[in-house]
Amino acid sequence: MTDNELMQLSQQLGAALKAQGATVTTAESCTGGWVAKVITDIAGSSAWFERGFVTYSNEAKEQLIGVDGATLAAHGAVSEPVVRQMAQGALNAAAASYAVSVSGIAGPDGGSADKPVGTVWFGFADNQGRVEAQLQRFDGNRDSVRRQATAFALQTLWQHFIQKT
Questions:
Q1: What's the rounded Cα separation, in Å, for the pair 34 and 52?
Q2: pLDDT per residue of the chain (165 residues) written in tens, 0 to 9
Q3: Of 93, 75, 94, whose CA–CA distance to 133 is shortest?
Q4: Which domains does the chain have, with CATH numbers?
Q5: Is the dihedral of CA 2, 84, 103, 139 positive or negative?
Q6: InterPro entries, from UniProt (predicted)?
């Protein structure tokens, strides 16, 4: 996905959030704030973007958004239970309408047989009690994996949460 396509997606997301009077927050690990960056590239995004948490370390996940250390120890940062807790924790901490979380292995190192490079988990939560998680596997180098993860996070938030509200 090109920068222009990411911008168009962010504009679409922002227009829908603004129309609802809703806000979004992010909790990001492997994308390092890229989802928040793309969102805040849109002029006027302060009307619908609450805040972003870059929780790259496990300690940051625990301290900033309340991910349980036992969950991290049992499942690892790149897992369904962790991204669910990340999304819910960010939603609560920001008092936002929606949250998206991202945790993955962008590479080139860090992969394993169970979790190869390109493995990315996403969490989505809303203030109506919905919390969902999705696993994706992306190909390419570090930049490509992170770009694809950013696009997937925005598209899925739009299609499965914002648009259906």
A1: 10
A2: 899 999 999 999 999 999 999 999 999 999 999 999 999 999 999 999 999 999 999 999 999 999 999 999 999 999 999 999 999 999 999 999 999 999 999 999 999 999 999 999 999 999 999 999 999 999 999 999 999 999 999 999 998 888 766
A3: 75
A4: 3-161 (3.90.950.20)
A5: negative
A6: CinA-like_C, CinA_C
